[in-house]
Amino acid sequence: MPVTDLEVAREAGEVARDADAAVTELYAAHYQMLVGLAALLVRDQGAAEELVQDSFVAMHSGWRRLREPDKALGYEPDKALGYLRRSVVSRSRSALRSRTAVARAAPPDAPSAGQHPLALLADSAMVAALDRLPGRQREALVLRYYGELSPAQVALAMGISPSSVNGLTARALSSLSGMVALRA
Predict the structure, then answer these.
(1) Shortest CA distance to 56 belongs to which of 103, 90, 24?
(2) Residues in CB range of 147: below 8 A, 6 or more apart
(3) Alpha-carbon distance 137 to 167, whole Å?
(4) Fewest CB within 10 A of the end CB: N or C in the chain?
């Protein structure tokens, strides 16, 4: 039986309403945590807020792909939150790559690209040490301990295997303990 334009429009309207409600619920529940995660990764509060907002917009736009049509609920909150985490991590990496490229092209006496998002903790030895870690190690630690994710969830967010997460986390913790011990 052929599908009419009216049926297609009706379904599109239902998907849009589902997306609006679900994204609003996810935003209220997880926005602050995702901004904190992004701020620790990109070290810029304003950029972190933009990255998270862009992730929510992208999720809303691609809502049809996230839906599980055979589920009564219409979507799985864990799947959507996992999508958001992965999007935030990916966008954070892109922002850092872009920032690095701009810094390399800038004259040596140009000002830095932004203030540390944890300015109140700027003299904290742990925050300073975290800033000196390689990006992937910092991502693994932030997701694991700040985001309170399991190694499997960190692996999904970073797009790597759980054993790689364990290795990155172990190396990061070892480096951090050495850096903090040197300052003590």
Answers:
(1) 24
(2) 33, 37, 85, 154, 157
(3) 9
(4) N
Answer for the pair 114, 51: CB distance below 8 angstroms, yes or no.
no
- Cβ–Cβ under 8 Å, residues 44 and 114: yes
Q: Please say if the pLDDT value at position 5 is more than 80.
A: no
The pLDDT tens digits of the residues spanning 71-122 come to: 434 556 678 888 899 999 999 998 888 877 666 665 554 444 444 434 434 4
Q: What is the DSSP letter of 160?
A: S
In the predicted model, what is the mean pLDDT of the chain? Answer: 77
How many residues can be counted in the chain? 184
- Rounded Cα distance, 55 and 25, in Å: 15
What does the pLDDT look like over 13-36, one tens digit per residue?
A: 565 677 788 889 999 999 999 999
- Please give the Cα distance from 168 to 16 (Å, whole number): 40
Nearest to 84 by CA among 22, 136, 170, 162: 22
Whole-prediction pTM: 0.63
Q: For residue 164, with 0-12 CB atoms within 10 Å meaning exposed, 13-18 middle and 19 or more buried, which class applies?
A: middle
Closest alpha carbon to 138 in 171, 97, 162: 171
- CA 130 to chain CA centroid, Å, is 17
Q: Which residue has the tokens 């692996």?
A: 155
